[in-house]
Request: fold
Amino acid sequence: QLQLVESGGGLVKPGGSLRLSCLASGFTLDYYVIGWFRQAPGKEREGVSCISMGDGRTYYADSVKDRFTISRDNTANTVYLQMNSLKPEDTAVYYCAADPLPYAQALCSMPKPSSVIGYWGQGTQVTVSS
Reply:
């Protein structure tokens, strides 16, 4: 069974930074894409950034390009999301997700991800407010 555990959320002022962590276990990492999704109240869950655990290639949603950076540590079975220049519209519950896909964009751009992707963490709240 694949398990994902997120951490690192919290309250931060606009312009501030947070780093989220996703610890994965129970599967062969090389065959998976791991990504970050977020869901604000009343909105659909959306892909933020994804990374292939095999080759390290990444994908970013347009709304977070040049502000967020995703990275992986395969030895530690961990994926990180460094979030800089945070905006109030970044406020959401952030979820880690995984699927056996060949490249990063395939996960992050998947329609209706909450209905399709089978493996999710419990979520971590990110609140950006002054």
In short: The helical segments are 104-108, 113-116. Residues 5 and 30 are 18 Å apart (CA to CA). The radius of gyration is 13 Å. The first helix runs from residue 104 to 108.
